[in-house]
Write a structure and sequence with these properties.
Number of strands: 4
Low-confidence stretches: none
Oligomer: single chain
Largest sheet: 4 strands, mixed
Length: 176
């Protein structure tokens, strides 16, 4: 994430907080993200120097006006005007991070060899919330290459209890 995209996210988050609409802004950013994903050329068009700034800003308005808050639309138009279109996806990610921080939440990336049951997810979430003293949102993925156990990344820490990691440790000890 660039410093610039973080600055735009902070500005947008402040606007959302002033209006008491952090959740609404987060939802609206989902609409922006969806527009970028539905048409892969949309971001290229917004960043194209072959198209005038005014036309690029008009495209943003044509696609998003009435679907997102006016203040957000103005910020996106400003990003396009300043040549920062490519920072929009990173700005969205930074906004979500700021919103999670404000709610004292963290995201945890969980990788396991097999899908976790709801009970296992609940138990893991409880343990992580107790350890990090904040609400934890789990993003679970399955990767058979871990062989067994789980790997958790959150709060800049990696908790690797996978069989693959343990086998690697044994291999390193044997090769020393």
């Amino acid at each position: 994430m660039t410093h610039t995209s973080r600055e735009y996210a902070e500005a947008l988050f402040e606007l959302a907080a002033e209006d008491g609409q952090e959740a609404e802004y987060a939802e609206a950013l989902g609409i922006v993200e969806q527009a970028l994903e539905e048409d892969k050329d949309f971001l290229n068009l917004l960043a194209s120097p072959a198209i005038s700034r005014k036309d690029r800003m008009d495209v943003v308005s044509a696609v998003l006006k009435g679907r997102i808050p006016e203040k957000m639309l103005a910020l996106l138009r400003m990003m396009v005007f300043r040549g920062r279109s490519r920072d929009i996806p990173r700005m969205i990610a930074a906004f979500r991070e700021l919103a999670r921080e404000a709610r004292h939440e963290s995201e945890a990336q969980v990788v396991s060899a097999v899908p976790l049951t709801d009970g296992e997810k609940d138990s893991l979430r409880e343990k992580l919330e107790k350890r990090f003293e904040r609400k934890i949102i789990l993003n679970c993925q399955v990767d058979p290459a871990v062989l067994g156990g789980i790997r958790v990344e959150t709060e800049g820490r990696v908790l690797d209890g996978t069989l693959r990691a343990r086998l690697q440790e044994i291999k390193e000890v044997m090769n020393s």
